[in-house]
Amino acid sequence: MKAVKVLSSLLLVLVLSAFTISADKAVDDGYDIGDIATDFKLKNIDGKMVSLADYKTAKGFIVIFTCNTCPYAVAYEDRIVALDKKYKEKGYPVIAIMPNNPATKPGDNFSAMQKRAEVKGFTFPYLMDQGQKIYPQYGATKTPHVYVLQKTTKGNEVKYIGAIDDNYQDADAVQVKYTEDAVDALLSGKEVPETKTRAIGCSIKI
Prior knowledge:
Layout: H1 2-28, E1 36-37, E2 42-44, E3 49-50, E4 60-65, H2 71-87, E5 94-98, H3 110-120, E6 126-128, H4 135-138, E7 142-143, E8 145-151, E9 156-162, H5 178-187, E10 202-203
Parallel strand pairs: 4-5, 5-6
Antiparallel strand pairs: 1-9, 2-3, 2-6, 4-8, 7-10, 8-9
C-alpha cells in the first residue's frame, strides 16, 4: 500500500511538472523586446480591414489586446481612450485588438464590440482577431496586454510589453504609467525605462 502511495505521489509530481512546463512555454512564446512584429490585416468595427502598414506617417504603435467582458479591460477603457488622444497626433496611435473567441465569450462578438466602442467613444480601431491568429504571435496572455512598437528601418520593433500602468483599480492612484513612460522615452530618443512588466487582466478565452 505504501509503495502505491509513493508511486501515486511521483505520478502527481510528474503531471504537475509537465503542466508547469507547458504553461511556462505558453507564456514565453511570442515577441520579446527587440523583435520585429509582423503586420496583420484585421476587421475593424466599421467593417474595414486595418493593418499597421495603413499608417504611413506613424512613428510607432500602442497595440493593446483588450475586450468587452473582462473587468480589468473595462476598468482601463477610459485610460486607453486617453492614451490614443494623447499620442495619436504625436505618431503613436492605439490599435486595439479583441483576441477572445466569441463562441466562448458571446459578449465579445463583433456586434457587441461595435456597441461597446460607440458607448465608450473609442477613438481608435477596435479589431477582431478572427481565428485567433494574431495574439499568439505576439504572446499576449491577458486582456489588457500592451505592446509598444517603434517603426525602424528593420520594421516595427517591440520596445515595451506589459501593463498600462501600476493600478488597474484606480486611475487616480496610479504611480507609474508604464506605457506612457515607454512612448515618451521613444519620442525623446531615449531608452525605455522599463521594457517589460507583468500584464494584469483576464486570460484570453479560446
